[in-house]
Every structure is written in structure tokens, then in C-alpha cells.
Design brief:
Blueprint (H helix, E strand, L loop, with lengths): L4 H33 L4 H48 L4 H6 L2 H43 L1 H8 L2 H38 L1 H6 L3 H53 L5 H42 L22 E9 L6 E10 L4 E5 L6 H8 L11 E4 L2 E2 L5 H6 L1 E4 L10 H5 L8 H10 L3 H4 L19 H15 L3 E5 L7 H15 L3 E5 L11 E6 L2 E6 L1 H7 L2 H9 L9
Parallel strand pairs: 3-8, 3-9, 6-7, 7-8
Antiparallel strand pairs: 1-2, 1-4, 4-5, 9-10
Helix pairs in contact: 1-2, 1-4, 1-9, 2-4, 4-5, 4-6, 4-9, 5-8, 5-9, 6-8, 6-9, 8-9, 13-15, 15-16, 17-18
Length: about 575
């Protein structure tokens, strides 16, 4: 709120003046009624009526300014909060997203922040207004008739106590509702993201039933919250207006005895009503505030989550040009203190421009090595180190390190924008010439030219409008545009047909020229282009050498090769 101090001060002044006009209304009404019924003075009556109309006109202008200013400020603050939350989330380490569903995070960005928005736009204004009414009303009640004031305020401790008890219960109930909404949205997002799997296994009805069951939980929790709200409102209303009835009865007796004029009684009743309504509103607002506290806790829980991989305080600058000399030195790694060790004392070197293939059975630790090189996870202190061009990668900024590495994943990650957007994702300021050159180098231009709008064709969510080979070639074009010194290939052809594989392989032959490359190979046919093979087994580097050398050694690699190519003589491969 700090950047909007001036607007907040102006809005606060407008709110105070508007509340003062409202508090002056019963006093003016008192004189109006006494002029009409006690003194029977028509001139005074007319002047008071004109004054009232003028006051209400001024109040209308003040209310407009206050609502406009507060709403504008609140919208900007909430947008900034969403912006900060999103910017924080996309910088968290991949391990965080492995434990959270994207639908839950989206729910917090949308639903929880919206609850905070209602607090800032409506409830903050009402809270301030009702506080002014409460204290202003108490002062005017005291000035009007101290004895009646004591009767009126007797109900306040009851209402405050009820508000405290109900408010805490409402906070818990609201948090439960928001948690269940986040769970439901997480399931929906998961089903949408895996829609082909859902439909291919004809699980539409089951997914719909699961979502319906979660919605029933949401409704049940919301109804429990509604019962609390209803009971709270009913008890508060009865207590507040029951007090008004007592004051009305006592005030009527004072009028009958001549101790109050009719106008003074009406004035007092107005102020009593203001106090009672203010106490009731504050109690209700307190309940809403407790609900917002639950939402705020969830939002700031995310903002307080620290990434496990961060930039060093004084990062070392990576020399230019980057040569791509990579060293893994005695690296031992586990994904958590209570989880099994994935890598055991792994040491190897990728020289500048060398193509190295990493092979081994599933679960051997191949993808973990790629994740450590890109610092999606960090090697713990004392468990070895990874160096790029002689510098420990933990001493480099993430921008420097990841800017030097290009990743071509097994399942290319495309966004729902255009072909151009997806290629230029690596370098948003790239010219059309550079984008086209990258597409041609990746053998993608031949199919891009045939698309309805060429580079401007939208590819759909996750690139669903393109084939697997086309998506992969766009991913390779993106890496061409990035022009990294080190390339990571995570079995980029494993799910492609023969023709697509041929085109992708041709693109990769060009991509790998002059770059240090680490190929994660599941299909051993892809390792022939490698200068050297590293064989992992149960997290240990057990063999290394050329394709022919490892086949002749008849170790883990030879065994894996025979499993994949049982009809081929290993020595002839």
C-alpha cells in the first residue's frame, strides 16, 4: 500500500467527513422535529430541510470519491500481489512443483487473492465507517442522555464476546472451504492436462464422479460455514436490536415524565441504532476478516516458501565465449534426507565440443545428472561438485549457467501461442530472419511453410495441433536460436516414427556440431553419434568407452544392447 499513501489519505478524509455528516443527521432531525412539534416554526423547518439536502449532496460526492479511490488502489494492490506471487512461484525449484498440483496453485492465485480483494475494497471501508459510527455514536449518546447511554452499551460486551467465538470458528471453516476448492481445481487441471489419457482409457465418467465428489465436499464445508455465519448473524442481530428495544422502552418512559423531548428521543434512538448497527456490522466484518486471514495465510505461505536452489550472494561471471567444458567430480546425491541415494561418487568429464552419451537401465540416475547440471537441484556441500569451464556451477548465477545450456527434452514443452512464439521463447527479441534460420536448421521450416498462417499458426495447448516430430523439431529450433555452448538431449527421438526420427536426427547432427553434448539415451540406437559412452547402473558409473569397446567388454552396456537387439550379434554392431 505504500506507493498509494496519497490516495489513501484523501480517501480516508472523504470517509471521515462522510461519516461525520451521517452522525450529524440525528442531531439535525432532533431540531427539525422540535421545530415542527414543539415550537411549530415553519421557517426553521424549511431551513433545516434545505441543510439536510445540502449535506446529503456533499456526502454523495465524498462517497463517490472515497469508493473510487479505494477501489482503484485495491485493484492495483491485488494485481501487484498476484504479480509478485506468480513471479515468486515460477522461480521456485522443480522439487516444489513435484509436491504441488498446478490446479491448487492456480486456485490460490485466483480464489484466495480474490478474498483478499474483497477485504481491501469493501470490508476495509466498512470497517473504518462502522468504527467511526460506533465511537461517534457513543460520544453523541453520552452528550444526549448519559443514563440511556449506559443501557445502550450494556449489550456491547455480549456482542464482542460472540464475535470472538464465532470469528475463530469462521476462520477455520473458511480455510477448510478454500482447501477443498484448491483440491477440486487441482483434480480438474490434472484431468484437462491428461485429457488424451483420460479419454483413451474411457475414464471420463470416473473423472467426472471424482470431481463431483470433491465438489460435494466443497459444498458440505461451505454449508457448515454458512450455518456458522447464519447463527452468528442471528445472535448478533437479536442482541443488538434487543438492546434498541430496551432503550426505546426506557426513552419512552422519560418522554412521558417530561425528561426528554420527542426530538431528543428520536435523536437518541438514531444514535443508539448507529451504535447497535455498528457493533453488529463490526462483528460480521470480524467474521469476514477471519475468513480472509485464512486466505492470506495460504497466499503468504507460498510467498514465504524459499527456493532450494538460489543464486550465490556474489556470483562469478562465466567467461565469454563459453567453451562448454563440463566436470562432474565425486558427485553423490539424494533427493531428500530420508530418500535413497540416487548417485554414488560419480566422476566424468565432457571436453569442449565432445558428444557423450549417458546410458543405463531405468532408475540408474541419468535424468538426475541432467537436472544437477542445470541446477534444478543442487549437490549438497561436501558431496562433490560440478564445474563448467572450471567454475563450480553453484558459484554462477542461474541466468549465466542456464543461458549456456540448451535442453531438448523427450516430450517437448510447447506453449499455446504461435509457432514463432515457441521458437523465439529462447530469445524473445530475435528477428524474423533469426527465427526462420533456426527453423531451417532444425528441418522445421518445411512443415511450417505448409501451416495455414506459417509462423503465426497457433499450436494449441502443449502443441496438440502438431505431430510429435513437428513439436520436437520446434524444440530443436528453439535451442538453435538460443545457441548454447552445452546441449542436453533427453532421448529426443524415442517416441517418433521412422521418418520423423530421421528428420530430427538430421537436425541434431547440425545442432551438436562444435557443442559439448550430453545425450541421455534410453534407445541405444541413438548413441552411435557419441564420441564416448558412460554407463550408469544403480547410481554408479560402471563403464565408459566407445560403442565397440563396451560391446566387446560384455558388461552392463553389452547386456542392455542384447536385450534391445536380440537378433543382432553384439560384435558386429
Amino acid at each position: 500500500m505504500r506507493p498509494y499513501r496519497a490516495q489513501m489519505v484523501v480517501a480516508a478524509i472523504a470517509l471521515v467527513v462522510s461519516a461525520a455528516i451521517t452522525l450529524a443527521f440525528p442531531l439535525v432531525v432532533r431540531y427539525l422535529l422540535d421545530a415542527a412539534f414543539v415550537r411549530a416554526n415553519a421557517g426553521t423547518l424549511n431551513r433545516i430541510a434545505i441543510i439536510l439536502v445540502g449535506l446529503f449532496a456533499v456526502q454523495a460526492v465524498l462517497n463517490f470519491g472515497q469508493v473510487w479511490l479505494l477501489t482503484a488502489v485495491a485493484e492495483r494492490i491485488i494485481a501487484k500481489l498476484r504479480d509478485d506471487l506468480f513471479a515468486h512461484l515460477v522461480r521456485l525449484s522443480p522439487g516444489f512443483f513435484a509436491e504441488r498440483r498446478s490446479g491448487e496453485l492456480t486456485s490460490r492465485l485466483a480464489t484466495d487473492v480474490t478474498l483478499l480483494q474483497s477485504v481491501m475494497t469493501y470490508q476495509a471501508t466498512e470497517l473504518s465507517r462502522q468504527v467511526l459510527f460506533l465511537f461517534g455514536g457513543v460520544v453523541m449518546l453520552t452528550l444526549t442522555h448519559p443514563q440511556l447511554m449506559v443501557t445502550t452499551l450494556a449489550v456491547v460486551p455480549i456482542i464482542v464476546g460472540l464475535a470472538w467465538v464465532f470469528g475463530r470458528a469462521l476462520k477455520r471453516a473458511s480455510t477448510g472451504v478454500q482447501d477443498r476448492v484448491a483440491d477440486a481445481m487441482g483434480s480438474a487441471d490434472e484431468a484437462f492436462s491428461q485429457i488424451r489419457t483420460v479419454q483413451s482409457f474411457t475414464r471420463e465418467d470416473e473423472e467426472a464422479r471424482r470431481f463431483s465428489a470433491q465438489l460435494r465436499d466443497v459444498v458440505a464445508a461451505a454449508i457448515r460455514r454458512a450455518k456458522l455465519r447464519g447463527a452468528f448473524f442471528g445472535v448478533i442481530t437479536f442482541s443488538a436490536f434487543g438492546g434498541v428495544v430496551v432503550v426505546l422502552w426506557q426513552g419512552g418512559r422519560l418522554v412521558l415524565t417530561g425528561q426528554l423531548t420527542p426530538g431528543a428521543l428520536v435523536e437518541f434512538l438514531f444514535y443508539a441504532f448507529f451504535v447497535a448497527a455498528a457493533v453488529g456490522s463490526l462483528a460480521s466484518l470480524f467474521g469476514n476478516y477471519q475468513e480472509a486471514v485464512g486466505a492470506a495465510r495460504r497466499v503468504f505461505e507460498l510467498l514465504d516458501t524459499r527456493p532450494t536452489v538460489v543464486d550465490p550472494e556474489a556470483p562469478v561471471t562465466l567467461p565469454r565465449p563459453v567453451h562448454g567444458d563440463v566436470w562432474f567430480e565425486h558427485v553423490t546425491f539424494a533427493y531428500g534426507p530420508d530418500l535413497p541415494t540416487v548417485l554414488h561418487d560419480v566422476t566424468f568429464h565432457i571436453a569442449t565440443g565432445e558428444v557423450v552419451a549417458l546410458v543405463g537401465p531405468s532408475g540408474a540416475g541419468k535424468t538426475t545428472i541432467a537436472s544437477l547440471l542445470t541446477r534444478f537441484w543442487d549437490v549438497p556441500d561436501g558431496q562433490g561438485n560440478i564445474r563448467l569451464d572450471g567454475i563450480d556451477i553453484r558459484h554462477l548465477s542461474l541466468l549465466d549457467l542456464r543461458g549456456a545450456i540448451g535442453l531438448v527434452p523427450q516430450e517437448p514443452a510447447l506453449f499455446s501461442g504461435t509457432v514463432r512464439d515457441n521458437i523465439s521463447f529462447a530469445r524473445p527479441d530475435a528477428s524474423n530472419v533469426d527465427v526462420e534460420a533456426a527453423a531451417r536448421a532444425a528441418h522445421a521450416w518445411e512443415f511450417i511453410e505448409r501451416l495455414p498462417q506459417g509462423l503465426e499458426t497457433r499450436v494449441g495447448e502443449r502443441g496438440v495441433k502438431l505431430s510429435g516430430g513437428q513439436r520436437q523439431r520446434i524444440a530443436i529450433a528453439r535451442v538453435f536460436l538460443k545457441n548454447p555452448a552445452v546441449v542436453l538431449l533427453d532421448e529426443a527421438t524415442s517416441s517418433l516414427d521412422s521418418e520423423s526420427e530421421r528428420l530430427v536426427n538430421s537436425a541434431m547432427e547440425v545442432l551438436l556440431t562444435g557443442r559439448s553434448t550430453l545425450i541421455i539415451a534410453h534407445r541405444l540406437s541413438t548413441v552411435r553419434r557419441a564420441d564416448r559412452l558412460l554407463v550408469l547402473d544403480h547410481g554408479r558409473l560402471v563403464e565408459q568407452g566407445s560403442h565397440a569397446e563396451l560391446l566387446a567388454g560384455r558388461g552392463v552396456y553389452a547386456r542392455l544392447y542384447r536385450v534391445q537387439y536380440p537378433d543382432e550379434e553384439p560384435v558386429q554392431a
